[in-house]
Specification:
Helix content is about 55%, strand content about 10%. With about 200 residues, the chain is an alpha/beta fold. The protein has a single domain (about 1-200), classed as 3-Layer(aba) Sandwich (Rossmann fold). It has a five-stranded parallel beta sheet with strand order 2-3-1-4-5, with helices on both faces.
Length: about 200
C-alpha cells in the first residue's frame, strides 16, 4: 500500500510521516533535501536553477513511486510527484523564474511518465495558513529556507488549494493543521490516526 503526504513547505509532512511510520510500522520514504545537488543553488538563484531542480525532483520521485509499487510492504511517502508537476513547476513558470521553453519541456517529460504512474492508495493533504507555515519554517531553522518569501509561500498555497479541489485519482484526506500540534500532543496525533484508520481500514 502507498500512502502519500502532500502539503506546502513547512506544513509538517516530514514530521507526520515519521510519526505515522512509527505508529503503524510502515516504511517511511522521505524527501532527500540534504543530498539534492541543486536545492541550495536554487534558493540563491531561482531563475538559473529552477529547471534543473524540478527535473531532478521529477526523476527521483518517479523512481521512488516505481520502487514503492514493487515492494510488498506499506510505504508512507513525504511529498509526491504531483506536487512537482502541478504546484512547483507551474508556479516557477508563472513567476518568470522558469522560461516557457523549459516549462514546456518539463511538462512534456511529466506527460510521458504520467500514464505509467499509479496514484497513492491514500493522499493526505496537510492544509496550513501562511502564518502557520512561516512559524514552522522558522522553528526548524534550515539555512537554505531563510530566503523564502511570503509571496512565494502564498502562491504555492493557492496552487495547492486549486490542485486539491480537483484531485480525483484516489482517496483523499484533508487535515487542517493550523491548530494541531501532532508532534507534541498525543490527542492531536490520535485524531489524525483515527481518520486514517477510517480511510484505510474502514474503522470508525
Amino acid at each position: 500500500m502507498h500512502i502519500a503526504i502532500a502539503g506546502n513547505i513547512g506544513a509538517g509532512k516530514t514530521t507526520l510521516t515519521g510519526l505515522l511510520a512509527k505508529h503503524y510500522g510502515w516504511e517511511a520514504q522521505y524527501e532527500s533535501l540534504e543530498n539534492n545537488p541543486y536545492i541550495t543553488d536554487f534558493y540563491e538563484d531561482m531563475q538559473r536553477w529552477s529547471f534543473n531542480l524540478q527535473v531532478y525532483f521529477l526523476n527521483s520521485r518517479f523512481t521512488n513511486v516505481r520502487n514503492i509499487r514493487q515492494r510488498g510492504n506499506t510505504v508512507i511517502q513525504d511529498r509526491t510527484i504531483y506536487e512537482d508537476a502541478y504546484i512547483f513547476a507551474p508556479n516557477l513558470h508563472s513567476m518568470g523564474l522558469m522560461s516557457t521553453r523549459d516549462f514546456d519541456t518539463y511538462q512534456s517529460i511529466f506527460t510521458s511518465i504520467r500514464s505509467s504512474l499509479e496514484p497513492p492508495d491514500l493522499m493526505i493533504y496537510l492544509r496550513a495558513s501562511i502564518p502557520a507555515l512561516v512559524n514552522r519554517i522558522q522553528k526548524r531553522g534550515r539555512e537554505y529556507e531563510d530566503s523564502i518569501r511570503l509571496d512565494y509561500l502564498k502562491r504555492l498555497n493557492e496552487r495547492y488549494e486549486a490542485w486539491i479541489s480537483t484531485y480525483n485519482d484516489g482517496k483523499l484526506l484533508i487535515i487542517d493543521v493550523d491548530d494541531l500540534d501532532f508532534e507534541s500532543n498525543a490527542e492531536d496525533l490520535g485524531s489524525i490516526i483515527g481518520r486514517i484508520d477510517s480511510e484505510v481500514y474502514g474503522l470508525f
